[in-house]
Amino acid sequence: MNVQKLKMKSLAQWLVIGIVGTLAVVTLVYASSALRGLVIENCNDCQFVVQGEDIAGVLGGGSRFINGLSADSTSPLAGEVRGTTLTITGDADITGSLSNTEKTSVVFTTTTDTETTGVLTQANLATNDYFEISIGGASMTYGFPASSTWATLIPNAGDYKQWLFHNATTTDGINLAFGSGVGTFVQFATTSPATAKVLASSTASILCIRAVDTDVNCQGTIFGY
């Protein structure tokens, strides 16, 4: 009789242990599933710990995000780091190629013999990187805008931007030239800057940089056949 009671008591204990263990496993599985969809926002100076271990170690020692990392509302591609602004406070070591999908081009067309001058605006320069200029009549001179109008394009000393200008005209003698604006100075790699011009079917590369004294200095190189 005592032996039978002892067996029943032991069986009851094992049943309790089994039920408790099952509940613990179910709880862990549910918690793990819930964490998979966890999104943490607006967290400053946060430190995350998983089972007593810093999350940096859990992620592979160095916080590796093989599925990508997004700082905006768009899901990243595998290995992609995306966001509206990337700030690097130290040296940058880039082993791959750099590409800019935002680059755009524009076609400027002059159609009359009497139109010989034009003005590039900050909006033109901010929106486009490549200018295809078709001259309908005589040679054309485009003036760069005054340095005061570049406030949002290259606002700080050392800021710079580069453009390509192609003289799409195929007729010899119809040339493309560039003029300076107030506080904006355009120079070309030539011994005769005043006569620097882009011949028909040729291209000029012009880089403009904001100087410490707030002027904008532009250096150009002309490529021809």
Q: How would you summarize this macromolecular structure in one to three sentences?
A:
The chain is 20% helix and 27% strand. By secondary structure, the protein is an alpha/beta fold.
How would you describe what is shown here?
With 225 residues, the chain is of the alpha/beta class. The chain is 20% helix and 27% strand. The chain has a domain at 105-223: Sandwich (Jelly Rolls). The protein has 3 helices and 13 strands. The strands form 4 sheets. It has a 6-stranded mixed sheet, with no helix packed on it. The mean pLDDT is 74.
Query: What strand order characterises the main sheet?
Result: 5-7-9-12-13-11
- The sequence of SSEs as H and E is HEEHEEEEHEEEEEEE
Helix content: 10-25%
Helical region count?
Answer: 3
Per CATH, what is the topology of the domain at 105-223? Jelly Rolls
For this entry, give a set of tags.
13 strands; alpha/beta; Jelly Rolls; 225 residues; 6-stranded mixed beta sheet
What topology does this entry show?
Layout: H1 2-36, E1 49-50, E2 53-54, H2 55-58, E3 69-70, E4 81-82, E5 105-110, E6 117-119, H3 122-127, E7 130-135, E8 140-143, E9 160-167, E10 176-179, E11 184-188, E12 203-210, E13 216-223
Parallel strand pairs: 3-4, 5-7, 6-8, 7-9, 8-10, 11-13
Antiparallel strand pairs: 1-2, 9-12, 12-13
